[in-house]
Design goal:
Elements: E1 3-4, H1 16-46, H2 51-55, H3 83-90, E2 98-100, E3 117-120, E4 127-130, E5 135-137, E6 141-144, E7 152-154, E8 161-162, E9 172-173, H4 180-183, E10 200-208, H5 209-213, E11 222-223, H6 225-234, E12 247-251, H7 262-266, E13 271-272, H8 274-282, E14 287-290, H9 308-317, E15 320-323, H10 328-332, E16 337-342, E17 352-353, E18 358-360
Parallel strand pairs: 1-2, 10-12, 11-13, 12-14, 14-15
Antiparallel strand pairs: 2-18, 3-6, 4-5, 7-15, 7-17, 8-9, 10-16, 16-18
Helix pairs in contact: 8-9
């Protein structure tokens, strides 16, 4: 098999060079979150009246629990995985070429807010010398938010909704209605940890919205259902190409800024809105990925909403997200269908996972 993806020889710049960039990124992200908060406050002062708003059981609509997979389910849409989806995925393998969809993890990659990635080698060598064969070895120490940096897989414990009083942990709910009172622990999630996710081996569909538009989409540009369907049509596919349990990855072109302009990359992003999230949920996909850091449009065109697609997919439907994907080699080959393979690191209690997803064509 041939392999395509990032090289592993990119130079790591001195950490000090990142301090100013980190501050700018944090400021820009605080800025759009603050703007969203002001928008929410303004909407509240305006009354937030209306029949639909008054009728909703929660801030994101009617209650979403129990899950269709049962009140005790912690695997979400990975329940679609199984022998049938594996065999369907194999049908997409025509050349045997393997595309790496992950970026290299390094200190100068774009990082959300104040997150860090610091790798240290404790001594060179770390251990030895032992035996007549004079063996030595090296280890590493890594300090980071392991599941939420670089190419990252969002688990079901990552996002939730406050459904009652802000201080009431029994009214802070995650997927399947799991409350923070049930899940919270200083040592990781007691429920919905990433260890419950089933490994993915399933058909994947690439939707090239940048190819449709002819240029990289700008931050704040919402990818609509019409965009998704038009891009599929351009690729010789239709909405029927997406089947229950499939993975959908969306190229906006934003990933071209990765390590080229981190400040701009982190300042916002194009992505799907709530309409497209609901469309994909109706298709019963198992995962949505993108070449940007949050999959969904930031800032949201509706200033009262902050990451609503995360709530729609992760919380309401148990559909996973894969962020910061490298979709360029897959796009260059016009490989619109592929086998998506990924097994999250089974870190007990983690909210997400690093790793290198593969697309086999």
């Amino acid at each position: 098999m041939g392999y395509e993806g990032d090289g592993h020889d990119a130079p790591v710049r001195h950490r000090a060079e990142n301090i100013v960039a980190d501050e700018k990124v944090a400021a820009s992200r605080r800025g759009f979150l603050k703007s969203a908060g002001l928008g929410l406050a303004g909407a509240t002062l305006a009354g937030l009246s209306g029949t639909a708003a008054q009728a909703a059981e929660t801030p994101i609509g009617d209650k979403w629990w129990p899950s269709k997979w049962g009140a005790e389910d912690q695997a979400g849409a990975s329940n679609h995985m199984g022998p049938q989806k594996t065999l369907e995925a194999v049908q997409n393998i025509k050349t045997g070429k393997v595309h790496s969809l992950g970026h290299v993890y390094e200190a100068d990659m774009p990082l959300f807010g104040q997150r860090v990635f610091a790798l240290r080698t404790p001594g060179m060598p770390t251990g030895g010398t032992f035996g007549d064969n004079k063996i030595i070895w090296n280890d590493e120490f890594l300090a980071t938010e392991i599941g939420q940096v670089g190419t990252q897989f969002d688990g079901l414990g990552h996002i939730g909704v406050v459904t009652g009083e802000p201080g009431d942990h029994t009214e802070k709910r995650l997927y399947n209605g799991v409350t923070m009172a049930e899940a919270a622990s200083p040592y990781g999630l007691k429920k919905l940890g990433i260890e419950h996710v089933k490994p993915f081996f399933t058909p994947g569909v690439l939707i090239d919205v940048m190819g449709l538009k002819g240029a990289m989409l700008e931050a704040g540009t919402e990818i609509t259902v019409a965009d998704l369907e038009a891009a599929l049509e351009r690729q010789g596919l239709s909405g029927d190409a997406i089947r229950p349990g499939d993975v959908v990855v969306i190229r906006s072109g934003w990933g071209l800024l990765w390590k080229e302009d981190n400040e701009r990359y982190n300042s916002g992003e194009p992505g799907i809105g709530l309409e497209a999230a609901r469309y994909l949920a109706e298709k019963q996909v198992s995962l949505v990925g993108a070449d940007c850091w949050g999959v969904e449009v930031v800032p949201n065109p509706d200033s009262t909403q902050v990451f609503p697609a995360h709530q729609e997919l992760l919380v309401r439907h148990g559909i996973y997200l894969h962020e910061n994907l490298n979709l360029e080699s897959l796009t260059a080959d016009a490989s619109w269908r592929f086998a998506y393979i990924f097994a999250p690191l089974p870190i007990k209690g983690a909210t997400g996972s690093p790793g290198n997803p593969l697309a086999v064509t």
